[in-house]
Amino acid sequence: MAKAIRMEQTGGPEVMQWVDVDVGAPGAGEVRIKQAAVGLNYIDVYFRTGHYPMPLPAGLGMEGAGVVTEVGTGVTRLKAGDRVAYVGRPPGAYAEERVLPADGLVKLPDAIGFDDAASAMLQGLTAQYLLRRTFRVEPGQTILIHAAAGGVGLFVCQWAKALGATVIGTVGSDEKAELVKTFGCDYPIVYTRENFTERVKEITNGAGVPVVYDSIGKDTYKGSLDCLAPLGYFVSFGSASGPLPPIEASEFASRGSLFFTRPTLFSYMAKREWLDQMAAELFDVIASGKVKTNVRQRYALKDVAEAHRALEGRKTTGSTVLIP
């Protein structure tokens, strides 16, 4: 029997239980993998608390990396021994072994380690679609990224800087401000003592920015809109502080015909060719050294409750991986 995290009900970190599971053999179009590393993401908290509903009992975790141990009938592009990574639903990555559809897996280049892959599939691919597809950042532009010291934030800071952009990022402490500077953030704003909207206006000489990437939600919504230049993009890709208030179209009109979008990674990788292209671009910027994965916390998978408490308490920076 393999071990995995399961929960019978939603709630706090204590609902996650370390139990025996029968993994089974892969069916048609599936593979079984032995996991070497699992990524920790805030979406896991949303599922655990019931903010994102799902049938119970259930597993948690959206991304992982490991080695194929067995393939089902009809699988031709993967074989036992292949190094692979994945991100996607249904949750269940918090496990030593699991069976998955082969179409959701990507092969890992030799230059990409398991920890790097497990920490990069969700956060790195999110940065990829934010910067290259939702709003395509160009050299010379100035962008604002909230939670710049978080996993996605550090990917965005580095990648945007490599694209030739000027990066403004909000953080919660001086320590985090120093961290994001080393990852390409030109102007860290410590939101606990600075008004980020006023500071963005100061940095841009009153012009505002063409795009705000906002994963905070309720607490930053109005301020983010006020940071935007006319025809700017408000990109809401998370709600760590709570859901957005009801959206009033007039707010976007009065500020200069702004755009609003609520993208999800799973829409952007819905087609196999999209996933392949996104993963290839991500692995390329990591292998080239332009973007570092920055795994800053590691926990044993069985100690995931401790990891969740740290994540929710905003005590983590960069990426966190769980080791089965």
UniProtKB/TrEMBL annotation:
Coiled coil: none
Domain of life: Bacteria
Protein name, as recorded: Quinone oxidoreductase
Keywords from the UniProt entry: NADP, Oxidoreductase
Transmembrane segments: none
Residue intervals of the Enoyl reductase (ER) domain: 11-322
GO molecular function terms noted in the UniProt entry: mRNA 3'-UTR AU-rich region binding; NADPH binding; quinone reductase (NADPH) activity; zinc ion binding
Listed GO CC annotations: cytosol
Listed Gene3D superfamilies: Medium-chain alcohol dehydrogenases, catalytic domain (3.90.180.10), NAD(P)-binding Rossmann-like Domain (3.40.50.720)
Organism: Trinickia dinghuensis
